[in-house]
TrEMBL record, chains A, B:
Belongs to the PurK/PurT family. Residues 102-285 form the ATP-grasp domain. InterPro entries: ATP-grasp (IPR011761), ATP-grasp_carboxylate-amine (IPR003135), ATP_grasp_subdomain_1 (IPR013815), PreATP-grasp_dom_sf (IPR016185), PurK (IPR005875), PurK_C (IPR040686), PurT/PurK_preATP-grasp (IPR054350), Rudment_hybrid_motif (IPR011054). This is N5-carboxyaminoimidazole ribonucleotide synthase. Signal peptide: none annotated. PROSITE patterns: ATP_GRASP. Pathway: Purine metabolism; IMP biosynthesis via de novo pathway; 5-amino-1-(5-phospho-D-ribosyl)imidazole-4-carboxylate from 5-amino-1-(5-phospho-D-ribosyl)imidazole (N5-CAIR route): step 1/2. GO terms for cellular component: cytosol. Its EC number is 6.3.4.18. One of its GO terms (molecular function) is 5-(carboxyamino)imidazole ribonucleotide synthase activity.
């Protein structure tokens, strides 16, 4: 079986590493010459919308998937008309546009922060009394890791924030004074079977995920499962999906979802019976899904902009290094390390060490 | 860093899969066109003693290692004179010849079964009264998975067994009425640090390993560690090494060692904090060695000659599939599956299921 992946970054890399033991081969389509997954399969080198390369991918792959959600709609449609594609173009379309996404959440009774579409500075000024302060102005499409976002604290911020957007369609969202940011990762296969991972509790800084920790037995698990199950079924979704949520006063609100494997689930490589990467493959190949049971207590620390020293990580007995083979560059995720321990106290100790190592080389 | 590997079979494949997260790249030298590791790195396609390819390998790899011990001595010497090679040509030389190996064990006070070199039928007849019955006649070199071996039960077996050897130098060994076959896998890095895995208890049938089970807290652990440490230090060994032992009446005797990662250690991928494959890489790169602590109870079942059904394995919650991308062929190891559980009872249940699946497709 050959799996085609649009994108050859670290997510594609980790999908491929999980797929070899299942006997799979991989073809990646990616415009970058030295993408980090290219050693792990064949690399079709060119634009994501290159018709010839897409045709090759569709012809040769038994199933095609993505490592990012900003796949042009016509590309997804072309692939879907020529081969099996998971997740579906519909899931991509919903995830790509923050306005569609939020509206979709509300349609299926998943609460979100207050939001409004804005296409001009006048509209922004008009809706702010309803949205309330503070709020966040975001481009409707293309943003990730906090890019294309501005915090609005008072009326004096509006003009500047609007100018930064440079005329792209936008959405303004009420800022939620959340107690925690969490995410739930779930997988659904074509037969409709669904599995849920234990919640991840996530720590962002500067809009970038820094630490994700598995939370076995979290009191919010059930509510999160209910929401993500709704979403998976409403989208007739196949594959792994990550739903990011805010916890506020014991209630959950959806922030966004990613129709793909997710940074907050990297701890599942060591910390779950079956990793999110393997379960994504199982789902899109319609194999029985693997157990998501936690293996010990675990957490993941991202290395942003600077590479960790392999020997330093290797000297920590319960740490596991994951380099992405990416050159360090400002704000770029270049590696992560997982800690897996028996007790929460041990975990806290190792996470502390890893965070210190990540801060030492941080460049954001 | 680029790691060169002589051989591109399943061991090289699993070394490479463990090496990507450490940021490594791989070059394999292997005569077979469609070897199972070739998707995971560059493939130099040709004979192991092809001077041009060896030169390429030596020039481009930062360190070279092997997935099998029958590397011609001049090949090992050539590589060692041009680049870093681990394990050393000396370790290979000792492991390649059963006579040298047994003698080496005895030199460093590791007990073995009685043995004697035999170069003619007359010599065989002469030594048998000393060796005793039953005994095993083996070629001194090149044997694996029971190939080139004959059981000698009485004097009438000698002529036939000798004829089968076809004149190659041989060794006759007393057959040990062992209580158990076990192996200990250990790693030593260039700095001299050593780690030991929990013992593997191994079950062979038809000379081929079928099941290996991790034995945490086994009463023989200490004695096995003492022997393998002796061996590692006597060879000034760098890398992972597997020492196969017989247990007889509470004592251990060495059968043989493999200067490489070993089939009886495949359970370490899921069942140990750091796998034997990652620790082999850490050792030859002189990184700190990883913890060998067991993660749960685990065991591995080999699939010989026939491929498992992926969906059947995937439907067993605590089983993990490892396909080698090899076409099934009589007596060929094509896959293994690991079971990892909380309790020995759960383990026994899943191993039973996996053995049944392996027997269903067995072709030996």
């Amino acid at each position: 079986m050959i799996v085609g992946i649009l994108g050859a970054g670290q997510l594609a890399r980790m999908i491929a590493l999980a797929g070899y033991p299942l006997g799979l081969k991989f073809i990646f389509l990616d415009p970058s010459k030295d993408s980090c997954a290219t050693g792990l399969g064949e690399h079709l080198h060119g634009a994501y919308d290159d018709p010839k390369l897409l045709q090759q991918l569709a012809q040769r792959a038994d199933v095609v998937t993505y490592e990012f959600e900003n796949v042009p709609a016509d590309v997804a449609a072309f692939l879907a008309s020529h081969t099996q594609v998971h997740p579906s173009p519909k899931a991509l379309a919903v995830a790509q546009d923050r306005l569609t996404e939020k509206t979709f959440f509300n349609t299926i009774d998943i609460p979100t922060p207050l939001y409004a579409p804005v296409d001009s500075l006048e509209e922004l000024e008009y809706v702010m009394p309803t949205i309330g302060w503070p709020a966040i102005l975001k481009s409707r499409t293309q943003g990730y890791d906090g890019k294309g976002q501005s915090m609005l604290k008072s009326a004096t911020d509006l003009a500047g924030a609007w100018k930064l957007l440079d005329g792209v369609p936008a959405i303004v969202e009420a800022f939620v004074p959340f107690d925690r940011e969490i995410s739930i990762i779930a997988a659904r296969n074509a037969a409709g079977a669904v599995v849920f991972y234990p919640l991840s509790e996530n720590l962002h800084r500067g809009g970038i995920l820094r630490v994700a920790q598995s939370r076995v037995g979290d009191p919010m698990q059930q509510q999160a499962e209910t929401y993500v199950l709704c979403l998976l079924e409403a989208l007739d979704y196949v594959g792994v999906l990550a739903l990011e949520l805010f916890e506020v006063n014991g209630h959950l609100m959806a922030n966004e979802f990613a129709p793909r494997v997710h940074n907050s689930g990297h701890w599942t490589i060591e910390g779950a019976e079956t990793s999110q990467f393997e379960n994504h493959l199982r789902a899109i190949l319609n194999l029985p899904l693997g157990s998501t049971a936690a293996v010990g207590k675990s957490a993941m620390v991202n290395f942003i902009g600077g590479l960790p020293d392999s020997a330093e990580i290797a000297s920590i007995a319960q740490a596991h290094l994951h380099l992405y083979d990416k050159a360090p560059r400002k704000s770029r995720k270049v590696a992560h390390a997982t800690a897996r321990t028996e007790t929460p106290e041990q975990l806290a100790g190792i996470v502390g060490q890893l965070v210190a190592l990540a801060n030492k080389v941080d460049n954001t």
